[in-house]
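User: Structure tokens for this complex, please. No commentary.
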Amino acid sequence: GAGVSQTPSNKVTEKGKYVELRCDPISGHTALYWYRQSLGQGPEFLIYFQGTGAADDSGLPNDRFFAVRPEGSVSTLKIQRTERGDSAVYLCASSRLAGRDEQFFGPGTRLTVL
Amino acid sequence: SQQGEEDPQALSIQEGENATMNCSYKTSINNLQWYRQNSGRGLVHLILIRSNEREKHSGRLRVTLDTSKKSSSLLITASRAADTASYFCATGDPGAGSYQLTFGKGTKLSVIP
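Assistant:
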């Protein structure tokens, strides 16, 4: 596609529920990143994929968070047993090559945990 | 944790004036990128400057980088109301493979028509 797309654009869920957030990167981009942005803050790194493998998941806050990219393109961020503190905008980005090129961001998914 | 710090936190100017935003960072970098964000959603990439570059231009944007002072500045000339947004600098840390961007808290720019 022309840019990075993310679905859904908004997600409201109840505390304790499971959610999945999807990211469709720019075609041909091998690197994919997830960030989380809380109100009034800059984005914070969560996880980075090179191809199908998670090359660095050091930013994931705890084991309730998990992400996959099974075919090296679309990625899904999964959050189990959601907590109110998980409420944020989740941003996905992709780049042609990791570490050297610009990262292009999607519009984000605004997650609200009630 | 956030490495970069933008200054000022908020800036309000008249249309046609120039806007200057500064960014300071703490560790060594491979590159520094500036992004714009409207209404707290997707970030738009503006410009990337590598650690061996000192200045870069793109349209009405001018970015400088001083690695000795660990600082960068973004200048927007002849500002327009459509430039109203939050602006973030992001650094790629070679110790973290450079792919992990570290963002500041941003500068909120308001351009008054």
